[in-house]
Design brief:
The structure holds 2 protein chains of 2 kinds.
Chain A lengths: L4 H28 L6 H19 L3 H22 L8 H23 L15 E3 L4 E3 H23 L1 H11 L1 H6 L4 H27 L5 H16 L4 H21 L6 H13 L12
Helix pairs in contact in A: 1-5, 1-8, 1-9, 1-10, 2-3, 2-4, 2-8, 2-9, 3-8, 5-6, 9-10, 10-11
Chain B lengths: L1 H5 L3 H30 L2 H26 L8 H16 L5 H23 L4 H21 L1 H4 L5 E2 L13 H24 L1 H11 L1 H6 L4 H27 L1 E2 L6 H14 L6 H19 L3 H15 L3 H18 L6 H13 L1 H4 L1
Helix pairs in contact in B: 2-8, 3-8, 3-11, 3-12, 3-13, 4-5, 4-11, 5-11, 8-11, 9-11, 12-13, 12-15, 13-14, 15-16
The chains are: A mainly alpha, B mainly alpha.
Chain lengths: ~290, ~350
């Protein structure tokens, strides 16, 4: 069991990465009924922009991360305002629109940055490793877990303890009534969507150091995040956290214990969970 | 369509001539398809073959999607497994043609049963994501079981010479695919208009009412999946012969997404809509990719524009034009504008009941 500790920590770190991406996805769905398959593209774009900022303009790590998050958030808000909001609560056309947008970004990234896998630099001061009894573990990966936990707590405070959070919850529960009482629901959509995209971009900058960035990789992250979102229950942040831990562990332990079945060990249990509990672990029944 | 035929007066003639036109257009299309090898270069004939395969895949997919109302994002599984059976059967196990055909049919039908049984109770976005997860599980197996599938490299070295009566040349393979596509389309058409096909539509439109009348909704949905999977598997097998390589790409979620997009852009509430969507997208892709390396960006923009402006797809667009014209013609007979709008809505939402 002690030999498994590094793998378990790896699984938790990967789950943390998935949570950062999935939380934006689940909020967008819970609030707007929007299934955003371009969310993985926001992840990749964040990582690539940060690399570009560091290598071309010599920005420090955190400055580059902030620029990447801001640029991706602006792009996402424009996408939401101009295109996506026309198809709210209409999932099938959303799939086509957001896949189209994802393909567009992926192709432009390929044109701009080429197809070779690259790694964003790691955050300064977090190199090195700590001893965990059976060897050492990179501090960078541990910090990913801490970061995900911090984001979760911040999200929970923002949603449950602030006025904006209260209006968002109101809009999630009963959108027509929220609109009728004068809440700025489209503005809330915009803020949530932009914040979710910024989180995904941050995951691309920070977590990109974990997985690397390469064409097509954002779709692997997207699909695993989607899995996290549905297993956790569409719209539930807590569900996303729990599911991210489960999926991260399934993924890493599957790779170690059953290498020939690595991806199967993630998707098959997920499919079974969904077949018997379609609303996910923390989902509200009845909302589609 | 039935509602249009039921209207009295001038529309009876319109319906008869409509049937004649439809019969004639089938003859013309089949004739043109049969003559294509004489007109196209070898390269373009390859594209035409691919169009036929994806048209067939699209029509089969739409049995679940448009007819059954179950949004599947997992059809790559059937398509890819059909391909892998051919690849493994011919290059590894030296199966004869009969064995290959039987295994393709049985494997895709069995997989269709599993998909249908697990996902038939999930609606909407849950159905979408559940089928996606199932297909990803199959993709993961193909990707990781390197000893059998050679993983990411795929299986190469397929030959068409093992197909009986078909040589290795492109023309005879084109005719073979054409025969398969026409035969499959005819069979699917029969299935759609059979009592089972009708019941599947009923389960889409009013599942609780169907259940109350004693129909077993779940079994009809599963049967839609099984039939759809069989023909998707055949299309995947043909695609394997066409490409002469089978890799996890055949099973990847992008393959499911492509057929999904083809069906929606062509028009999912029509029988032939997905075939039209497949034709349009493959022609566009081949043409654009001759001119720019960024053809994917162009295609992506087309997806986005079409879905925003013609959410019912190209067939839906043509229908709307036609029924609007019909509504205008009928106005003097005393049908109100509101009634015309209502029947237009009904015609578009129930369009393939009669198709």
């Amino acid at each position: 069991m002690r030999q498994m500790l590094p793998h378990i920590l790896n699984g938790l770190a990967f789950g943390s990465l998935l949570f950062l991406v999935a939380s934006g996805l689940t909020l967008a769905y819970g609030l707007m009924g929007a299934l955003n398959l371009a969310h993985g593209a926001f992840y990749a774009l964040g990582g690539y922009i940060a690399i570009h900022m560091i290598s071309q303009y010599g920005l420090p790590y955190w400055g580059a991360a902030a620029v990447a998050m801001a640029m991706v958030a602006v792009l996402a808000v424009i996408f939401e305002r101009v295109l996506l909001h026309r198809l709210l609560n209409d999932v099938l056309p959303q799939v086509v629109l957001t896949i189209g947008f994802a393909f567009l970004i992926a192709d432009q990234i390929l044109a701009f940055f080429g197809g070779r896998p690259i790694f964003p630099p790691r955050p300064p001061g977090l190199g090195g490793a700590v001893s965990i009894g059976v060897g050492t573990f990179p501090i960078f990966r541990l910090s990913l877990i801490v970061m995900a936990a911090a984001v979760y707590i911040l999200l929970m405070i923002a949603i449950h303890r602030t006025k904006v959070g209260a209006t968002i919850r109101a809009a999630v529960d009963d959108e027509p009534m929220a609109r009728a009482t004068g809440l700025p629901v489209p503005g809330l959509f915009m803020v949530t969507f932009g914040a979710g995209a910024a989180l995904a971009a941050f995951a691309g900058v920070w977590g990109g150091g974990f997985t690397g960035l390469a064409p097509g990789l954002e779709f692997q992250v997207l699909l695993l995040s989607l899995v996290v979102v549905v297993v956790g229950g569409l719209g539930s942040v807590t569900g996303a956290l729990v599911a991210a831990v489960i999926v991260g562990l399934l993924d890493q332990l599957g790779k170690v214990l059953f290498p020939g079945f690595a991806l199967f060990t993630v998707y098959a249990p997920v499919a079974l969970i969904l077949a018997f509990r379609p609303q996910g672990l923390f989902g509200k029944a009845g909302r589609e | 369509m039935s509602s249009r035929r039921a209207r009295p007066g001038v529309f009876e003639n319109a319906a008869i001539s409509g049937q004649a036109v439809r019969g004639l257009s089938v003859v013309v299309i089949v004739g043109v398809l049969a003559l294509l090898p004489f007109a196209l270069s070898s390269f373009n004939l390859g594209i035409a073959t691919r169009i036929l395969i994806f048209a067939m895949f699209g029509v089969a997919f739409n049995l679940v999607f448009g007819l059954g109302g179950m949004p599947s994002l997992g059809h790559a599984a059937f398509f890819g497994v059909g391909g892998y059976v051919i690849a493994l059967g011919t290059t590894r196990w030296d199966w004869d043609t009969l064995t290959l055909a039987v295994v393709v049919l049985v494997a895709s039908a069995a997989l269709g049963f599993v998909f249908g049984a697990l996902s038939c109770r999930a609606e909407g976005v849950y159905h979408l994501l559940l089928t996606l997860a199932l297909a990803q599980a199959i993709w993961g197996l193909a990707f990781q079981q390197i000893n059998i599938t050679r993983g990411d490299h795929g299986i190469t070295g397929l030959t068409r010479e093992t197909i009986p009566f078909v040589g290795a040349d492109r023309v005879s393979f084109y005719y073979f695919v054409l025969l398969c596509a026409l035969g499959s389309t005819a069979l699917l058409r029969l299935f759609v208009s059979s009592p089972v096909g009708r019941a599947i539509v009923g389960c889409r439109e009013a599942s609780s009412r169907m259940a109350a009348m004693g129909f077993r909704v779940v079994s009809y949905r599963i049967s839609a999946y099984v039939v759809s999977a069989i023909f998707s598997g055949i299309a995947g097998a043909l695609f394997a012969y066409h490409q002469r390589i089978v890799s996890p790409d055949n099973l990847a979620w992008t393959m499911s997404a492509v057929i999904f997009i083809m069906a929606i852009l062509g028009g999912a509430n029509s029988f032939y809509g997905p075939a039209i969507g497949a034709t349009m997208l493959i022609v566009l892709e081949s043409w654009v990719s001759m001119h720019t390396a960024r053809w994917m960006s162009v295609l992506a923009l087309v997806f986005m524009v079409v879905i925003l402006f013609f959410p019912q797809g190209l067939v839906g667009l043509a229908r709307r034009r036609r029924s609007r014209a019909a509504a205008e013609r009928s106005l003097p007979d005393g049908i109100t504008a509101a009634g015309a709008a209502r029947s237009e809505a009904r015609a578009s939402s129930h369009a393939e009941d009669a198709e």
